[in-house]
Each structure stands twice: as C-alpha cells, then as structure tokens.
Amino acid sequence: MNIVLADSHPIVRCGLKAMLAMAGGINVVADVDSGDAANTAIALHRPDILVIEVGELPAVRSVKDTAVIVFTTRDDEHAIRSAIQAGVRGYILKTADDTDIVRAIRSVAAGELIFGRPVAARLAGVFQPIEQPFATLTSRQRQVADLVAGGLGNNAIATRLGLTPKTVRNHISQILTTLGLPTRAELRRVAS
Fold first, then answer.
1. pTM
2. What range(s) does the HTH luxR-type domain occupy (predicted)?
3. Is 132-191 the same fold as 2-126?
C-alpha cells in the first residue's frame, strides 16, 4: 500500500518513514510538511492512505479516494469531533507504539475505522447515549414522554395521569425545551 505522510515536524516524518519501512508492505511515496503539500502529493501519487496532523485537516477536506488517518498529540474532544466530521478513517495518538500504528494503517487500508485506545475512551464522552437526555427529566415528565411515545393525545394523557390537559401541555412544552426538540412528533420519535 502507498502512503503520504504530512506533518510539520521533520523528525516525526523521518521516524514514521523508518518505522513503516521496517513493517514491510507499506510504501511511503511522499513525506510533506503541510496539508497543502499533501494535496499536491495526493494528486501526484494517488496513495491509499494519508497520515496527517489534525491541524492540517482543513486543507485536505476534499480528499476523496485516499483514506485519512490523523496522527497527533491532541486527544481533546474538539479535535476528535472535527476529525470525525471531516471523515477521517483513523485517529492515532503520537504516543502509540509502533505495532499499534502499523496495525491501524493496515486496518484502515482494509476498510476499517480505527481509533487508538485513548481516543476510543474519549469517544464515550463525545457521543451521549440517546437515553441520557431523559435522565434530566422529572419522573412526571418521563411518564408524559412515555405516553406521548405511545401515541396518546393530551386529553388521554391527562385522564391517565389525573392531570388537566393544560398541565399536560405545560409538561410537553418543558420536555421539548429540556431535550432541545422542535416538535411533539420529534419527541414521539426519540422517546419510542
């Protein structure tokens, strides 16, 4: 497989290139110092994979036929989220050992998404489970949301819970605000 390395630090590129040469089957066709230079190298060499620092991602957002792996020191939520939104296939920290780096490159070449262990642990904090926002509702609001999900109207919910229809409307309004949902239909979809 052919790879382009893009990192502003020559020592990083040199070390990666030497390590990958020893791994076998991985050919570094270019090592460059910026995202713009990476675009030129990609157009020239048509590599399978681009390994790039997260700060250079904006320059290569238009890359289509080359899988992108971020190789970085940054494990903050913003960097990870930006990389995922840019469509990267892998996110590896520079603290990873050589076997993990080679395995990640081979896995991405095989079509997998790869995130190093520390990054995977951070992803748990980036993506909330769907049920978690409901934990912020009161028990009465959860009852109302469950009945909305079941398809009941305000009058039926009021009768079932011993409330007035106006109180039910108030609960639904508060639920929509708390969960950041635009409509009752969206609440029904999310709650079911």
1. 0.64
2. 130-192
3. no
